[in-house]
């Protein structure tokens, strides 16, 4: 665990949090940037789920399942998945998104590739 964000208490990740405004649950993030992104979504009152679904995206020549992909966030109000990328992960994550789009054309996903994109306006999701 790299970061924890508890929605039911005031903490260092969201000092303006009001526990009575949201349902209670805690999230363990696999990357600090995920925690910051969740905080930014909360500040904008955008509902989110963290890694709620894994998609089968790759099969070998015989049809055997060989790869899956779990997007970082799902924004239910926008019916949109969001995948965050940092460091040298761009090629791998772009490949996973390409495979997801090939196999699930009705699934909407956005790749957020830079820190400046971690804070975006909801209309920027489309």
Structural class: alpha+beta
Main sheet?
4 strands, mixed
What strand order characterises the main sheet? 3-6-7-8
Give helix % range: 10-25%
For the termini, the CA-CA separation is 31 Å
Regions with little confidence, pLDDT below 50 for 5+ residues: 1-24
Q: What is the ordering of alpha helices and beta strands?
A: EEHEEEEEHE
Shape verdict: globular
Count all strands and give the number: 8
Q: Give the radius of gyration.
A: 16 Å
| Mean pLDDT level | 77
Strand percentage, roughly?
Answer: 25-35%
Number of domain modules:
1
Number of helices: 2
Provide a brief overview of the structure:
By secondary structure, this protein is α+β, with helices and mostly antiparallel strands. It contains two helices and eight strands.
Topology:
Blueprint: E1 3-6, E2 26-29, H1 32-43, E3 49-50, E4 55-59, E5 65-69, E6 73-75, E7 80-84, H2 90-103, E8 109-112
Parallel strand pairs: 7-8
Antiparallel strand pairs: 1-2, 3-6, 4-5, 6-7
